Amino acid sequence: MKRLSLLLAVALGLATAVSARPTVIECWFVEDAGGGKLAKKPAALLLRQGAESPPLRPDLAPERYLKIHDPAGALQAAFRQYPRDAPAPRCEMSLYVPLPASAKWLSGLTPEQSCPRALDGTWLMVSMSSPFLSLSSLLRPQSEPQPEPALITMATAVLTVFTHTPTPRIPMGQDALLDLSFAYVPLTPKAPSLAPGPPPFGLEWRRQHLGKGHLLLAVTPGLNGQVPAAREGAVAFAAWDDDEPWGPWTGNGTFWLPAVRPSQEGTYLATVHLPYLQGQITLELAVLKPPKVALTPAPLVWAAPGEAPPELLCLVSHFYPSHGLEVEWELRGGPEGRLQKAEGQRWLSALRHHSDGSLSLSAHLQLPPVTSEQHGARYACRVHHPSLSALGRSAEVTLQVAGLSGPSLEDGIGLFLSAFLLLGLLKALGWAENRVKPLSTILGKPPSSPVATVITPQ
Ligand SMILES: *[C@@H]1O[C@H](CO)[C@@H](O)[C@H](O)[C@H]1NC(C)=O
């Protein structure tokens, strides 16, 4: 019984997960309009294969209203983790022309000299991007739209590549794991020329930097031949996950980069190569390091009434990137008792670059002259940075206005000794007079010291 209810719960969970996935993705069909211009036309992809008939879309040309046949379940898998309340991904579609890969290390994929006839005809490449998904799929539309009940064109997702981490933000020094899944449905299953089982494929990961691509990793599982050596310690899990004789097949091309540094930030291009077909997605890798925040002087800063305290220096160190760093000065528990912006002159030092790529700077605050009411006020520097939560990180110092705090330990000991000496002196002299001279005068202490200030009547 317990097991049954558990099963039921799982089934219900799956049902809600299914309904959470978007059914129709609005898209743009983009094509070259000549003269370096692009023309955009509305399109839509119907992803879910329900029993109900597709919604009527008289606003779309039938060849741009596509019902996706996805035998590998790749699009379903891609949207499985898609947050329910997140906006639909941006979607663009364009014509695709099957071509052999140009890189020499991929020549083993296409030993025959010409593209198989089975690949003739129209191909579409659809790209979707959102903070939760980056996906590319090569679609093979049927030549004629299906007439009934809604004018819609059936299209098979032949090669689909996607990641659930399109914008990985990796703490500096940690390993980056960039997930990549793909799926392939052969157009001519059980072709006599083909051996059963998933075909060889090529996987490459590159980083774009200043308009130039750097090949980080190239692998061709199932093929012999030389591939360029991996760089920067990059490793990929490149394999088909399942071994059906005639497909469809799903695969994993997850990429691993050890101990990332700021110099490894950028756009990563992952490409899965099959004969004459390439599926490519982009990811934006960001490296983050939260700042250390320290304030000097600390924990107290002293000033006499009417004088300005020494300059406060907030050291914001070893962070990355510089973009998005903000330093605020706050006054906590001042005369009005609440948190407010601290007054005073503020400035920032130039950025200092460390050999590991991280950065430091110092923020300075020169407070105006203080009054005795400000005694006990706390000043804080608060640092905001993309690596920190919205609250940021702060350090604080308490203002002590001289003459308002109780006597310090040294003053106390001094007072005790003075009293002791004075008593002895009085006794020795047998002095009976009632007038007591101020201690400060007897001991030669400056009248500005707290003890003297309290007693001196003049
Ligand atoms: C791909 O492989 C990596 C490493 O083994 C693993 O962590 C990840 O879960 C795999 N992805 C999928 C979709 O199976």
TrEMBL record:
Origin species: Bos taurus
The upper taxonomy is: Eukaryota, Metazoa, Chordata, Craniata, Vertebrata
Designated name of the protein? TAP binding protein
Instruction: Fetch the InterPro entries from UniProt.
Output: Ig-like_dom, Ig-like_dom_sf, Ig-like_fold, Ig/MHC_CS, Ig_C1-set, Immune_Resp_Modulators, Tapasin
Check the record and name the Gene3D superfamilies matching this protein: Immunoglobulins
Pfam families given for it?
C1-set
Q: Its domain of life?
A: Eukaryota
The biological processes this protein is annotated with in GO are: antigen processing and presentation of endogenous peptide antigen via MHC class I
Q: Which gene encodes it?
A: TAPBP
Would the keyword Signal be found if you checked this record's keyword annotation?
A: yes
Q: Which residues form the Ig-like domain?
A: 291-398
* GO CC annotation: membrane
Which keywords belong to this entry?
A: Immunoglobulin domain, Signal
User: Which residues are the signal sequence here?
Assistant: 1-20
